[in-house]
Amino acid sequence: MTGTPDTPWNIHGDQQDLPGMLDFAVNVCQPSPPPVVLNVLEAALPQLAHYPRHADYARVQEALAVFHGVSPSWVLPLAGETEAFDLLSRLPWRHIAILHPPYTEAEAPFHNAGYGDAIHHYLAEDQLPVLPNYCDLVIVGNPVNPTSYLRSRAELAQLRASGRIVVVDEAFMDVVVPDYAAAATFLPTVPTYGRGATSAASAAATSIQKLLGGDLIVLRSCTKTWGISGLRAGYAIAHPTLVERLTTCRSPWTVSTLSLAVLRALPQPALQEELATIRTRIAVEREAMIRSLTMAGWQVRLPASGPFLLAQPPRYPGTVDTLRLGLQEKGIAVRRTDTFPLLDAGWWRLAVKDVSSVQRLIDTVRVLTKEEETLA
Predict the structure, then answer these.
(1) How far from each other are the two terminal CA atoms of the chain, in whole angstroms?
(2) How far apart are CA 362 and CA 33, in angstroms?
(3) What local confidence, expressed as pLDDT, does residue 191 receive?
(4) 140 contacts 168 by C-beta, under 8 angstroms
(5) Where in the numbering of this chain does the Aminotransferase class I/classII large domain appear (predicted)?
(6) Which pTM was predicted?
(7) How far apart are CA 138 and CA 98, in angstroms?
(8) What is the CATH architecture of 35-267?
(9) What is the pLDDT of residue 195?
(10) Which end of the chain is least crowded, N or C, by CB within 10 Å?
(11) Closest by CA position to 226, among listed 35, 60, 12
(12) Fold for domain 8-31+273-375?
């Protein structure tokens, strides 16, 4: 079964964002790459005449391995997280559990691979579901997209079982406040530069690899955090046996030269300092956005830890989807949520934005509501 552009698992926020619109629909953390990333890309441009080299791939593995305290054989560079789901869909599975609400693009490759009858949705909000023993693949996001809910590492560990692979999508973990991320992520970072870096990395490798075991695949993305969604870059950390299984079914040269350059640069001090700035900005803007929406009569799903919020606008005379389309005509894009299984059109996912952008959204909703009330 192949998904068409309007099937739920193929609908993405960028389909609701047109050029020039105020974009709340896509969770890109900044409108363009910061200078530190542009410098990395510019330095790699002369290499574009060559196919991505194995040596470059290996250097990415080494850099990310030290960064996360694992051996290089545990690192799988990817052309974005979506490549990981595509590779997983090429392997045999009996019962695929997707914890909802989820990142819908994770599901698309499995439908396209003919796994429709093997895909099962489980609601995972207040607590995790009890899965059947024969479930051999679980996919869960942390923080959850679109609710922005962050689960603890201990809670997610309950999903592990003999004969089962658990995929944890940590696409937005790098912008979670460090104190919260420390208790949630399966991929802590270790010092990669300065005194004691080598010994720290060596000491961490054994404990981190033991934590991951042979049944856990953790995914990371750098495209939305760094404003490079058009580039496609991410990676997986997993036991070498799992990395090998995924590698054997992939096409050659899927990770571009520019993507490899960015992935290799991620642990560098300049990018980590910029990341800390991005993370702080998102946290401040998220709290301000929650206050503004709440004071304006919106419902916001809390707690929230990611660069987006699940929010419901105040009572509207028409349907919320009609309101969404009205916003679109006014130049504002929001992400509909009826395409997320187990959610309906009454909520929107909103990217975290600055105060003035949020106020424009609030004011425009008020204007559209008054116009609809007048017509009623």
Answers:
(1) 43
(2) 28
(3) 56
(4) yes
(5) 125-363
(6) 0.90
(7) 6
(8) 3-Layer(aba) Sandwich (3.40)
(9) 43
(10) C
(11) 35
(12) Aspartate Aminotransferase, domain 1 (3.90.1150)
